[in-house]
């Protein structure tokens, strides 16, 4: 496979992290990323492209000190959770009609609890299911559900620590997550998520170890395609896995 850089975003002196791609209702690529430093005043940005080679200017989204992590589109609207990097922790859902101007949507969630990365999935019956990394108290991940208009949430404790969550819904309705697990060591695995039961079950460990995870996952032609990074071969590298699930 011939891989090459299609474009470099002009972001001098910014420590950009956790880029995430989504597709807008009019077919554009939308890239979300956050400038991590200075940490208490981190800022999130979005860019747009028609062809991957040319990108729009950066649009600031969200307030200073909130990390807006993964943007998803549902029925013409864009949704993204922001987590506070300030001393007071919380989770806030944002909504936008154009992907450039976001407004808080609903009340803050898990106020006073240090929460982290999110992986929301919108279902055909107008439910949002969100896998949440938590790094406080027991460090156990949470699964949240909310019906449209997504301003009231129910959270369940999954009882296991995760990192870098990514989640998709398969055509048969099951929820499949790709996460970093920590027991017996750090590795990236595929897991089944049951939102109603509040459970996470690991079913396949990918070749991985050390600093790893932060996957991108898609269902394509009967296979789950997963891109992720790992450092088990002595240096940090990007890997592509194709997995057939029963």
Summed up:
This protein is mainly β and 246 residues long. The protein has strands spanning 16-23, 29-35, 43-49, 59-61, 66-68, 72-74, 77-84, 91-96, 103-104, 115-122, 127-134, 142-147, 154-157, 163-169, 175-181, 187-194, 199-205, 213-220, 223-230, 237-243.
Q: Can you walk me through this structure?
A:
The protein is mainly beta and 246 residues long. The chain has two domains: 8-112, 5 Propeller (Tachylectin-2, Chain A); 116-246, 5 Propeller (Tachylectin-2, Chain A). Helices cover 0% and strands 51% of the residues. It contains no helices and 20 strands. It has strands at 16-23, 29-35, 43-49, 59-61, 66-68, 72-74, 77-84, 91-96, 103-104, 115-122, 127-134, 142-147, 154-157, 163-169, 175-181, 187-194, 199-205, 213-220, 223-230, 237-243. A hairpin with a 6-residue loop joins strand 7 and strand 8 (91-96). 32% of the residues are buried.
């Amino acid at each position: 496979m011939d891989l090459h850089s299609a474009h470099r975003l002009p972001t001098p002196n910014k420590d950009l992290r956790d880029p995430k791609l989504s597709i807008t209702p009019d077919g554009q690529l939308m890239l979300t990323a956050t400038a991590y430093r200075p940490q208490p005043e981190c800022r999130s940005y979005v860019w747009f492209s028609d062809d991957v080679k040319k990108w729009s200017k950066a649009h600031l989204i969200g307030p200073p000190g909130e990390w807006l992590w993964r943007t998803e589109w549902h029925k013409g609207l864009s949704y993204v959770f922001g987590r506070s990097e300030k001393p007071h922790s919380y989770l806030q859902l944002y909504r936008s009609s154009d992907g450039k101007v976001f407004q808080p949507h609903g009340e803050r969630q898990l106020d006073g609890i240090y929460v982290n990365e999110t992986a929301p999935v919108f279902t055909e019956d107008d439910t949002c299911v969100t896998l949440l990394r938590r790094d406080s108290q027991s460090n156990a991940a949470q699964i949240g559900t909310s019906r449209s208009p997504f301003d009231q949430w129910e959270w369940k404790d999954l009882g296991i620590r995760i990192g870098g969550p990514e989640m998709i819904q398969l055509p048969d309705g099951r929820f499949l997550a790709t996460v970093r697990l920590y027991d017996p060591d750090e590795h990236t695995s595929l897991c089944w998520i049951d939102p109603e039961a509040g459970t996470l079950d690991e079913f396949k460990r990918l070749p991985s170890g050390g600093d790893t995870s932060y996957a991108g996952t898609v269902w394509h032609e009967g296979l789950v395609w997963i891109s992720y990074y790992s450092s088990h071969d002595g240096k940090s590298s990007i890997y592509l896995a194709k997995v057939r699930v029963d």
